[in-house]
Specification:
By secondary structure, the protein is of the alpha+beta class. It is 20% helix and 31% strand. A hairpin with a 2-residue loop joins strand 6 and strand 7. The radius of gyration is 14 Å and the shape is globular.
């Protein structure tokens, strides 16, 4: 007996930046993933955010074009303008 499994694709939100890098907490606010910087700080320190597939607890982590941050089953991708 064969079982077919469908894997639901995670939605991807692409945001453009004018700078060569952006801090992780600022990027989450820019994408409207969180409402405040305090909320961003909490979720990052609790290990709820993945950067490029790995859990990241550094809220000041610099993201560059091509990097991806994942929170709440949504992928946020940094794009250069």
């Amino acid at each position: 007996m064969k079982i077919k499994v469908r894997v639901k694709q995670k939605p991807v939100v692409v945001k453009k930046t004018d700078t060569p890098f952006i801090r992780l907490d600022s990027f989450l606010k820019l994408c409207d993933a969180v409402q405040t910087g305090g909320h961003a700080k909490l979720i990052i320190q609790n290990g709820e955010v993945r950067v490029n597939g790995e859990i990241c607890t550094q809220r000041g982590r610099k993201l560059r074009p091509g990097d991806e941050a994942e929170f709440n089953k949504i992928i946020y991708k940094v794009d250069a303008s």
